[in-house]
Design brief:
Oligomer: single chain
Number of helices: 6
Helix content: 40-55%
Number of strands: 0
Radius of gyration: 15 Å
Order of helices and strands: HHHHHH
Distance between the termini: 26 Å
Length: 127
Amino acid sequence: MNKSTEASSCYPANYDFNNKQLGEFNLNKCKKIYNNLIKNNDIEKDLIPYLNQKFIVYTGIYYIFHFFNVDSTQDQGLLEWRMQSICTETWRQLQKDYPTESLSYLFSYCANGVFRDALLFNTLSFK
């Protein structure tokens, strides 16, 4: 994802993500990057059919959904609204708003949230 010319759209505003570019979160641009990444790597072909079966999630998804306060719902619209409202804040403001979050995780929640959104809702049709 970081190889994309629009990778800055996946990071919080003003976050220096590669010592050259500052983040400028844009949900739609970031989502396009991840949808293309999923498509270009044929992730759908590697999926095991899960219709009428339990879906077990790994903790990485839980922590991201918990951060965006959507861990008790499966609503894509709510997740995207939360990402849009949080990730467009400046990096400095996010650090103030979430002082107990590790900085090594805080910067990545936006990009990882968009990836999980694209994977779960667009690729897996999670409902």
